Structure formats: structure tokens, C-alpha cells
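## retry 2 of 3
previous attempt timed out at serialization; input unchanged, resubmitting
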Amino acid sequence: MRYQFIHRHRSKFSVEKMCKILGVSRSWYYAWLRRPESERSKRRKRITKRVHQIFVKSHRLYGSPKITQILRHEGERVAQKTVANIMRENGL
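## retry succeeded, writing output
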């Protein structure tokens, strides 16, 4: 989470300063940048994109239970709580 914050704000503040303030090593930040994206992160992004598509296609009517049902029908193993969290995080 700290590294993501640093990455998002690196154009406004120096990486060195942010690392110092947040108490993280600058070398760890750069190692984090080079690390490949995890499978879990890729899956979360894929599900988030699909949740958004389903929500918009439903004219913004479907909630997490219905979207979860559709995702499961499509073969995606996902919990309703995960879908609800994704919807909340994305303002859906």
C-alpha cells in the first residue's frame, strides 16, 4: 500500500522524501517496481472489469448477489463479499 502511494505521487514529491516519511527503504520501493504483477492481482483486476461491465449493462440495477450469480454462471469462482467489496471500492 505504501509503495502504491509513492508510485501514484512520485511526480509531485521526491521518492526519497516519501520513502523517508513513510519509513520504507528506497531500494525496496524500486524492487517493488520491478516485481511482476501477481496472479492474484491480475485476477482481481479481471473480476473488477467484469463486475463493472455487468453493472453498467444492467443499467446500474444489479447488486452484488446478482452479479455474483452471473459471474459464477460464467465459471468464475468468486464470493459475494468479494463482489460487494469491489463494487464499494469502485463506487458502484
